[in-house]
Amino acid sequence: MSVPTELNRVLYIGSDNLWALRRTDTSGAPIVPTDAKAQIRSATNGDLWVECVITIDNVNGWLYIHVEEDATKDAVWTQRILGKWDLEAITDGVKYRWVYGDVVISQEVTLS
């Protein structure tokens, strides 16, 4: 449970981004955390770019990580290329780093 999984993502600027994941125990049963937090930063320990919105499916163990369109509307996003992210989950009162990886920033072409 303590070994995080590397999972690289693409963040599409100007769109709602929804990532879903879950972890299972050795028997295949879902591990359902009581709380979770995910952030996207410029680098490890770098500037915070986005505090993700997390929804937990308390039955099937799915975590839905949402980066809302509004979170990427600032003009500074046009200069961003690559960042880092991770997700920490609390299970049985213990905080684990479940997932980490790179985030490639995909620039928007069609503008409002």
Label this structure with key terms.
112 residues; mainly beta; Immunoglobulin-like; 6-stranded mixed sheet; 0% helix
Describe the structure.
- The structure is a single chain.
- With 112 residues, this protein is mainly β.
- The chain has a single domain (5-106), classed as Sandwich (Immunoglobulin-like).
- Helix content is 0%, strand content 52%.
- It has strands at 5-6, 9-12, 17-21, 23-24, 30-31, 35-41, 48-51, 53-56, 63-67, 82-91, 94-106.
- Strands 1, 2, 6, 7, 10 and 11 form a six-stranded mixed β-sheet that branches. Strands 3-9-8 form a three-stranded antiparallel β-sheet, with no helix packed on it.
- A hairpin with a 5-residue loop joins strand 4 (23-24) and strand 5 (30-31).
- It is elongated.
- The chain starts with a strand and ends in a 6-residue tail after the last strand.
Topology:
Blueprint: E1 5-6, E2 9-12, E3 17-21, E4 23-24, E5 30-31, E6 35-41, E7 48-51, E8 53-56, E9 63-67, E10 82-91, E11 94-106
Parallel strand pairs: 1-11, 2-11
Antiparallel strand pairs: 3-9, 4-5, 6-7, 6-10, 8-9, 10-11
Briefly note the structural class of the backbone: mainly beta
What average pLDDT do the residues reach? Answer: 94
Order of helices and strands: EEEEEEEEEEE
What would CATH call the homologous superfamily?
Immunoglobulins
CATH topology: Immunoglobulin-like
How far the N terminus sits from the C terminus, by CA atoms, comes to 44 Å
Instruction: Indicate the multimeric state.
Output: single chain
Under the CATH scheme, which class? Mainly Beta
User: What form results from the Cα inertia axes?
Assistant: elongated
CATH architecture: Sandwich
Q: How many strand units?
A: 11
Percent of residues in β-strands: over 45%
Low-confidence stretches: none
Number of domains: 1
- Helix count from the secondary structure assignment: 0
Q: What fraction, in percent, of the residue positions are helical?
A: under 10%
Q: How many whole angstroms does the radius of gyration measure?
A: 15 Å
Q: How would a textbook summarize the main sheet?
A: 6 strands, mixed
